[in-house]
Every structure is written in C-alpha cells, then in structure tokens.
Amino acid sequence: MDVTKRKAASDLSVKGNTGARLTETEPKELETQAKQKRQRPGVTSEAWRVEEAGEVHEEEEEASEIPLNQFGKIVKAKEEVVVASVVVVVAFAVVSVMVVMMRVGEKALEEEVMKMVLIREVKAEEEVVEDSVVVSVMVSEAGMRKCFPKSQTKTRQIKKQVKVQVGPKVVYVPPPPPEEESSIFSHYATGINFDKYDDILVDVSGSNPPKAIMTFDEAGLCESLRKNVTKSGYVKPTPVQKHGIPIISAGRDLMACAQTGSGKTAAFLLPILQRFMADGVAASKFSEVQEPEAIIVAPTRELINQIYLEARKFAYGTCVRPVVVYGGINTGYTIREVLKGCNILCGTPGRLLDIIGRGKVGLSKLRYLVLDEADRMLDMGFEPDMRKLVGSPGMPAKEDRQTLMFSATYPEDIQRMAADFLKVDYIFLAVGVVGGACSDVEQKIVQVDQYSKREQLLELLRSTGNERTMVFVETKRSADFIATFLCQEKISTTSIHGDREQREREKALSDFRTGQCPVLVATSVAARGLDIEHVQHVVNFDLPSSIDEYVHRIGRTGRCGNIGRAVSFFNPDSDTPLARSLVKVLSGAQQEVPKWLEEIAFSAHGTTGFNPRGKVFASTDTRRGGSFKTDEPAQASAPTPAAAADDEEWE
Ligand SMILES: Nc1ncnc2c1ncn2[C@@H]1O[C@H](COP(=O)(O)OP(=O)(O)OP(=O)(O)O)[C@@H](O)[C@H]1O
C-alpha cells in the first residue's frame, strides 16, 4: 500500500479525531500532496481517480467525527480493505477489457474468415450437424495477414471451427405416422352428391388422349393397390381419376384441373404406384444418397404431409417407401428419415432444394415430378424455386421425365408458364369450369363494415353450435386476435398461421380434426388442399384479394360429394375489386347472387379496381387460345360441341 496515501489518510483521520474542521490552508496542503502523488511514477490516472475517490470517501467519514483513540485501528483496517478492493476492481476491469478485446478480435476474425469462405478464398470443410453447418477452416499465415494486416500473430496458424446457425435452431420432431391399419386407412364417407360428379362436363385436350376408365378394375392396379383402394373406401373413381389415371399410365404429361375435394391426390398417386409395381421398383434401403423415382411438391407443410400420408396409405404392404420433408422440423431427423430409403419424396420447395443441395438426394432415377396446387407452385412466390428444382444437377430434362400438374384453379398466365415444364404434347384435363367453385358448397355473401365483423362472427358461430368451422383472416396478427377473442367468448378455438411454430401448427390442426377445438382461425396457409373430415362451415372473416384463393378456401368444406356452407363478409371499402369475380364464381356454381353485390360489381366494371385475376375462367386449354370472356356466364364457357368433335372427349 502506498505510504503517502496511508499518511494522508491517517492525517485526515487524526483531524477527524480532534474534531477540528479543515482550515482554509489545509486544502492547499492536500492539493500539494495530491499533485505529488499524481507525479509519482507507476500510479495510473485510473488508480489515481480511485484513490481520489477513496479520499473523498474518507472526507465524508471525517464529518462523522469519530475519535481515533477508539476507532483508529478499525479505520486503518478499513482503509486497507478499501485499497485492496480498489486493486481487485482495477485488476478485474483490466482483465475484462482484455477478454472483451480478445472476443471482439475473435469475432472479427470469424467474420473475416467466413467472408473469405463465402468468396471461396479460403478452403473450408463443411459438415451438417443438426441445424448448423460446421465450417472447419485452417487459416494460413497469409490468410491471417489478409484478415489482420497489423496483427502480431502473423506466423501463427489458426484452425478454427465456425458454427453457422441456419435460421433458428429447430428441434421439433413430429410424432411418427400411425402404424395400425385402422388409422392408416381411416376415411370419411362420400356424400350424397358423390354420384353427381358423373354429370360434370369434362374437357380433355391434347393429341391422342387415352380413353377414360369407368371403374378401378379398369385401372389395371396390382393386387396390393386394389386392396388399398378398397380399404380406403373408394368404390368408383371420380372424374379426375377416371381421366387422369389412364393419361398418366400412358406416360403422358398432364395439366389437370378439377374442383376442390374431388380426388386429385389419388388421381396421381395410384398410376405412379402402379408403374413402380409393374416395373418392379427396387425396395428402398439405407444409403448415404437416395435416388427417389418420384418427387411431389406442394406449397404448405400441412398439405405435403397429408399427401405423404396418402402415398403411405396407397403404398401400404408394398416395398415402395414415401418420405416427407418440410420446414419447421429438425433437419437431422429429416435427413435420417430420407437416408433410410426413399422412392417417393414429398416436400415443400425450400426443404426439397435444401436436401438436394446437401447431396442427400440424387435425381438420376427420377421419373415423375408432380406439382400439386400447380398454379400456386408456379406463381411469383414459388416460381423461382420450381425453376431451381427443374434446373438441379441431375434432374432429367422434361422430355425424359413425366411432369404432372394438379389444381382447382389455373389462371391463363400460369397455364402458359406451366407449359415450360411440360412436354409439348401434354394433355390438358378440365373437370367442370376451370377455377370454378365446388357446387356442393352453399355460398353466402354478407355485406358488413369492418367494425361489425367480430359481432357478426360471434352471432354466426353461436347460431351454428358445435359445427366444425374454419374462419379465414388475412393476417397472422388478426388470426391470433380473433382466436383470442373467440376463446374469451367461450368458443373453443385454435389458430394456424405462418408465425406459429410447427409443433403448434400441428397441434392446432389435430385439435381441430378431433373436434377438441371446433373452430380453427386460419390464414391462407390452410386455404389449399387440406382435407379435414366434418368441416361443415367456412367463414371468410376477411375476403382474400384473389378469387382463386376464395375458391380454395371455401373448398375446405363440401368435399367428396358432401355438402357444406361458406359465409363471406364483404366490406365494400376493401373488397370491391373482388366483386366481379365473386359474381362469376357464384353464378358459375349456381348460387344466388345478391343484388347489392351485382351493383357493386357493375359499378366497379372498367375501373382500376377490377380484379384481373377474374381471368380464372379460362374454360379450356390455353393452347387453343384460351376462352376468357368476362361477360359470359361461367357455364357458357364450356367448349362448344364443334370444338369437342376436334380433340375433346365428353363424359
Ligand atoms: N374415388 C373416391 N371414392 C371415395 N373417396 C374418395 C375418392 N377419391 C378421393 N376420395 C376422398 O375424397 C377426399 C378429397 O380428396 P383429395 O384431397 O384428393 O381432393 P382434391 O381434389 O385434391 O382437393 P383439393 O383441391 O382441395 O386439394 C379425400 O378424403 C379422399 O380420400
């Protein structure tokens, strides 16, 4: 301890002891002592400040006027403790600063190294561990010099492992799919309107389309597949199956359009599986790189999972192994599942590209590429991914693979673009009106203002009792908000949207399926393809901006010949651009069109508010020039008998 300081301190204590106050000259003395101390070598300005602080503290103590006789030793001991603490604090501060500097240096080095890895200046070994890419880099002397030209450690070699998190770490592993036959084949009954499917007009165009089948027996399915079809409760094929199955079996590319809930999934799965069985596809087995024979792509996680479960069901008892990959699930788990064996790879675009990019999936054996909800897969959101997918190394050219597209809606511009992915002689199959709504759904449009929507919804849900209802809203925030509001009103509700974790999304869907929560508030993430038993009711709390989306949303009810209801809140302030397309969809499905809606639609005609997506009524193949005529009733856009004589087949 500094002797001078101790003396100054004891002087102060003595003064305190005598009870005397500092005279005017005494501060000058102290000032002189202080100056001397500042000039002492080895005393840092920081230590000095601390010492000064100590003195100030002591001056404050002096005011308490404690006599030295009684407490001198204690004061001295205290003084030593203070100084010791000061030394510890200073040492700690210095060490902390050094550690922080080292960390900053390391971070900067990591960043710099990573930059060099990215621009391929430094060779790195990449390895996938869980949801991270571990990059091992040997930073050479030259590399060090490049990163830190002024560094003292020029000669040192650093081997660094940089763990790069690819998005937030996802640990979710979904529950395994059911193993018992009863669960695998559980299905709901077809509805009273199932037989009416036979009356729907079917338009098949393209050269030499194969003849439609009338029964599953005519599909030439092997024994296992026939059994699985029967166990699924399928007695006779729907129109899209009657036409689609022979077209695919004949090896033709297909763009198929059929109304929601009319069995498009089986229309592509059955002929693909049949081809695999007929050709004796190799039983899937573990391999570091899997070579699937078919890839199926769909836009949402829940939908692709549903397609996977359907594929698993129809492939039951065969050696064909379908696998599913989608976001929100632990990557390590997904990769392990794929590597166990994979004949049919079902996936959302991002995960598919990822797993192909990691070299876990090769494309040399690929025979089928299926785009479900094809118009969605080719619209602005997914088109780049689809182009990447077909451009992936090893992807067979379109002439060497079979490409199949399915949806209930096909805007003309998308149809034209889809042709880039298909062979020139692809077949276009339209069951009913392209983009038309399912006629088994009773549609009602209610005019409301934004502020009365909640009350109207409540009234509606209270009047329908415990009916399974999907409530569609435009934003994730309002999904949460409306779900909370309904729960507060004692209506068991859950919600699904893109901001919820995959675990929560799957739980929400399962609670809705089982009826534990009979109301599901959803964004467009649940609009397409989901096939949920007993959904009697769809409410468009907010109308979507595109008519295609409307058609898909209301198609969550009224499936497979069952009847359903859809109520849509129309707010003239925001929904007027949709009015004309709505009128067309309603009249096309033989629904009552409210007078006020017609008036809004009519007054919106010719304004910039007109929704160009109303063009969904391309009733025929665009290769015939399309037939979009906005002023015609939807039904009138069915092909003329003259055209039918040319290259169409009527059922
Ligand atoms: N031939 C059939 N007989 C009985 N049920 C069938 C038949 N074909 C399909 N289904 C059932 O009909 C329901 C709807 O089928 P699917 O989900 O394939 O319709 P979709 O046309 O793909 O609908 P979306 O356009 O909404 O995607 C499913 O439960 C399916 O198992």
Automatic annotation (TrEMBL):
Regions of compositional bias (Basic and acidic residues) in chain numbering = 23-34, 621-632
Provide the family line: Belongs to the DEAD box helicase family.
Motif range (Q motif): 214-242
**Residue segments, region Disordered:** 1-62, 618-651
Ranges for domain Helicase C-terminal: 453-601
Keywords on this record?
ATP-binding, Helicase, Hydrolase, Membrane, Nucleotide-binding, Transmembrane, Transmembrane helix
Q: Where is the Helicase ATP-binding domain?
A: 245-428
> Could you say which enzyme class this protein belongs to?
hydrolase
Q: What is this protein called?
A: RNA helicase
